[in-house]
Design goal:
148 residues; alpha+beta; five-stranded antiparallel β-sheet; 20% strand
């Protein structure tokens, strides 16, 4: 995968999430949960964001392997991000400090290396079979916006 092209894809995805959070609404109580969570993007949205972005890269674009990383902070709490080959992909990192870029894409990261007591890496979380119907609905709406 061309790294410059991947960075453009990541930026488009981030922009789509930012735009989509402003137009999402639903009368379905199950959809309200995910809409409420994602309306705070990038704060507290890393898990859903990783699922959506991981699915998009892995299944829609065929970019593999995409790995989900789950880190537990040394002082409690958690954060998720993705890896492609040895690259760290984190489009919610700026929730912790506005100094962080909106699209973090790098081989090295002091933050990801030093802030966590434990980090668990896994694949396979991006498949729809692990998702609720409201997650699938949200994802489909997001992709429709990206493609419009």
């Amino acid at each position: 995968m061309n790294i410059e092209l991947l960075q453009i894809i990541l930026m488009k995805f981030r922009i789509a999430i930012e735009e989509f959070k402003g137009i999402q609404s639903s009368s379905d109580e199950h959809d309200l949960d995910i809409n409420e969570i994602m309306s705070k993007f990038p704060k507290s949205c890393c898990a859903y964001t990783c699922q959506f972005l991981g699915h998009y890269l892995n299944f829609d674009l065929g970019i593999k392997p995409i790995v989900n990383c789950f880190g537990v902070f040394k002082n409690g709490g958690s954060h998720e991000w993705l890896k492609y080959e040895e690259y760290i992909i984190d489009i919610t990192l700026d929730q912790f400090d506005a100094k962080f870029p909106k699209i973090f894409f790098s081989l090295l990261s002091e933050f990801h290396r030093n802030k966590f007591a434990t980090i668990k890496e896994s694949e396979g979380l991006f498949d729809f079979k692990h998702w609720s119907s409201s997650q699938i609905k949200y994802y489909n709406g997001l992709i429709k916006l990206m493609n419009s």
